[in-house]
Amino acid sequence: MTDIDLSNIKPFETRDGSTTLYDEVRDIHYRSWHGAVSESRHVFLDGTALKDRGSRWRVAELGFGAAVNFTQTVQAFRSCEAAVQLIYHSVDWRPVTADHLGFHKGEAGTIARRAVDKYHSDGQSLITVRSDDEAIELHLHAQPWDDVNLAGFSAHAFYHDPFSKRVNAEAWSAESFARAKAAMEEGGRLATYSAATSVKRAMFEAGLSVATAPGPGRKREMTIASPVPDALDGLQLLDSSRYLKTS
Prior knowledge:
Blueprint: E1 9-13, E2 19-23, E3 28-29, H1 36-46, E4 56-62, H2 68-79, E5 85-91, H3 106-122, E6 126-130, E7 136-141, E8 155-160, H4 174-182, E9 184-192, H5 197-205, E10 209-214, E11 221-226, E12 236-237
Parallel strand pairs: 4-5, 4-8, 5-7, 8-9
Antiparallel strand pairs: 1-2, 2-3, 6-7, 9-11, 10-11, 10-12
Helix pairs in contact: 1-2, 2-3, 4-5
């Protein structure tokens, strides 16, 4: 359970007509106010090329937030005839409540609300919820990222979606990206909405190959990384020497 007051977090309709959450006290939108769903699909589903992963999809996420990425992933999974299993690990030390996620409809919304409701009622740091047919597994880690154990899990797609560096600086460190790399398969992709130089530098310091890609909406760029450069074919690979100090 949490002793943090979540009453200041409200639904917010974004420009594409989809909904996210807004923290009135900290002035934080949980997803781009230009378009919550359009950003989620472009940055995370398309950026990680998840739909090309065949029958079994493995996703890790830093920042469950308003569950937009999760619900969009479930919708993509259900619409893909070849996909038979989705295993989704998401980390969020401060999950919102089921009431906050009431705007999500259908199966994905039900699974997301069950997960956060179980957290707030039981106080467990790891919550697992499955779809009725058990094709979808959501594992919600309600704890700090550096306390999460994903040993034995190898993600095809890593959604790096914490709050900005202004609010959550530790999530954008080389150590954080090194943990992400350890949770990915060799040919996996990490995608994030950020295009900051400091973020790219931290990725290189973590041993990742890094590329830039067109961003969503009005955003010019976003960043995609992988343990191996071959997984970034078709993207603009960046030269690590531009970002790392040399002796």
